[in-house]
Amino acid sequence: MWLGVAFLLCFLTGLLSHLVQHPPAWFGWPARPAGLYQVTQGIHVIAGIAAVPLLLAKLWSVYPKLFSRPVVRSLPHALERLSILVLSGAAFFELATGLFNVAQNYPWSFYFLAAHYAVGWVAAGSVLLHVAVKLPVIRRGLTRLTPVDTARRSFLRTGYLATAVAVVATAGATVPLLRNVSPLSWRSDRGPQGLPVNRTAAAARVTVDPGWRLEIVTRTGVTRLSLAQLTGLPQRTAELPIACVEGWSQSAVWTGVPVADLIELVGAPGGSEVRVTSLERRGAYRASTLPGSHTRDPDTLLALRLNGEVLALDHGFPARIIAPSRPGVLQTKWVHRLEVL
């Protein structure tokens, strides 16, 4: 049951994350509460980590049945065997690739995001098939409770303890209260200006021309603003989290010009969608789109400062987007152009 809960949380929060990053026309993601994505993606990764010892415990408890004879007794039995094979393969694929993604290590040639998303649906379908086939057994197990012997009780305790240790040892990446007691947390406050960096300027091959100008494009023309002009505009300061798809998150204090003010400055309608383009030449996330729910939020900033200091180059100097309730990959760094759609 706990493994089922972990799988369900992983699937639902993973689906949300995919929709936020690649929103269809019907999908809308709110800007408030500011830490919403921080919570959903943190749950996604923590539930995935919890599922590892739970899945191993589940397989250990049932693996002798996999070698029973005859191999196939009936059509329902064949479906059950098939669902177990697909479920086990999909579950191991999802958990293994997810853990590699957390470590930002990709020892394969396929595109992680597309494969992880597709196999997630396979895993969900195989779970539903398996539950449907085993429903009579599940019903009996939940309604006819039998005494638990000492060996099984010890096994269950060990499984729960292993799951708890795995969660506590890693959850500090997304739960601030556990940061000092999570030895396997994959992110900390170490980094330029006290904030971790996933992709450096060197890795992105970004250089900033001394004559950099921000381009704001509308249907009526292009407005170009220098860094000095942006600094001279009314500034707003907000404490907002960076929440990455790898599950880590950390709050920081950002200062910059609200995107709503820049839209108003060029005479565009308030709440317009804005396409943000980076100086980065390559990469799946060199451009992103801010929906109207975010551009009208006063805390959606073209940030110029971080924790009271001018942005470090690795954090997006001369300007970057920081918005509430957004994945870190969509908080575009090294902003070159804002296009009002």
UniProtKB/TrEMBL annotation:
CDD domains, sorted: SO_family_Moco
Top-level lineage group: Bacteria
Keywords: Membrane, Transmembrane, Transmembrane helix
UniProt-listed Gene3D superfamilies: Oxidoreductase, molybdopterin-binding domain
Domain Oxidoreductase molybdopterin-binding: 211-340
SUPFAM superfamilies noted in UniProt: Oxidoreductase molybdopterin-binding domain (SSF56524)
Protein name as it appears in the record: Molybdopterin-dependent oxidoreductase
UniProt xrefs under InterPro entries: OxRdtase_Mopterin-bd_dom, OxRdtase_Mopterin-bd_sf
Chain segments annotated as transmembrane: 41-61, 82-102, 108-133, 154-178
